[in-house]
Amino acid sequence: MLKGRLGLEKARIPHADRHGLLWLSRGELCVVEGCLHFMRGKDSLTPGIDQIPHQAVSMILLGPGSSVTHDALRLLARHGTLLAAVGEDGVRSYTAPPLLPDRSDVARRQAELWGSPRRRISVARHMYALRLGEVLPHRDLDTLRGIEGARVKTIYRLMAQKHGIEWEGRHYDRANPNAADIANQAINHAATAVQAAAAIAVQSVAALPPLGFIHEDSGQSFVLDIADLFRDTVTLQIAFTAAKRAQQSDDTIDRLVRREAASVFRKQQVIGAMIDRIKQVLRVDEESHGAGDDRDS
């Protein structure tokens, strides 16, 4: 929206003053008498209709069993409220229409850090420090990746031992992902779920998904960066817990992983933690953009 045009930009509540995420599922998001409502259907535990304070919410996450009307999309766009279609408790991210956030500070900050080779490697080293629990002296990205890869192999083995899972190493065939053993399949599904949560977090702060600091080629590189920060504490915990349950369950490993991921996301408030971590690695709360930006992590 053009600044000052008809004074309409002042009618929007700034995202900094809004509530964060609103989760809705099993109903229809629609407009009734000019206001946004969510009509919960018969399959909901609490059928009925609720008015949604869309002007005071930054992002609505629409879960399974839900639909949205054209009028609702128009109303959300008018007030700059984001809408994403997601899986149960954020275990999948299907789409998020770009409804234009009212601030660009996070994206500009990310681009500023990404555009400088020295700052970019500093952020990457910070991310590796968060993942490995120590600041490594190396400044070469390939060396850091190699060190992290070796440690991940050890973590896989220890997690398998903890959960009583037979482990023969990490194997993944992109052409046939279901050919792997149950533990490896569980890791694949858990990684997908955590990446969905990371995508929601990145979208909610209006960061730039392609500009990753460790990952480079994917259009979701920054999403993968953030997801990897939670690999040890979230992804592998979900995967090996589900793999253990698969030994006594007739459910598919995909369904077991989704259920476990939904539970972990709720209990640990994973998406909120990811949002905080994005702000931390991009240093968006720093008052100065001077020399302090170049300090080593």
TrEMBL record:
EC number: 3.1.-.-
Cofactor(s) required, per the database record: Mg(2+); Mn(2+)
Chain segments annotated as transmembrane: none
Binding site for Mn(2+): 148, 215, 228
Alphabetical GO biological process terms: defense response to virus; maintenance of CRISPR repeat elements
Pfam family membership, one: Cas_Cas1
Keywords: Antiviral defense, DNA-binding, Endonuclease, Hydrolase, Magnesium, Manganese, Metal-binding, Nuclease
GO molecular function, one term: metal ion binding
Biological function: CRISPR (clustered regularly interspaced short palindromic repeat), is an adaptive immune system that provides protection against mobile genetic elements (viruses, transposable elements and conjugative plasmids). CRISPR clusters contain spacers, sequences complementary to antecedent mobile elements, and target invading nucleic acids. CRISPR clusters are transcribed and processed into CRISPR RNA (crRNA). Acts as a dsDNA endonuclease. Involved in the integration of spacer DNA into the CRISPR cassette.
PANTHER family: CRISPR-ASSOCIATED ENDONUCLEASE CAS1 (PTHR34353:SF3), CRISPR-ASSOCIATED ENDONUCLEASE CAS1 1 (PTHR34353)
NCBIfam families noted in UniProt: cas1, cas1_ECOLI
Family: Belongs to the CRISPR-associated endonuclease Cas1 family.
Protein name as catalogued: CRISPR-associated endonuclease Cas1
Organism the protein comes from: Oryzisolibacter propanilivorax
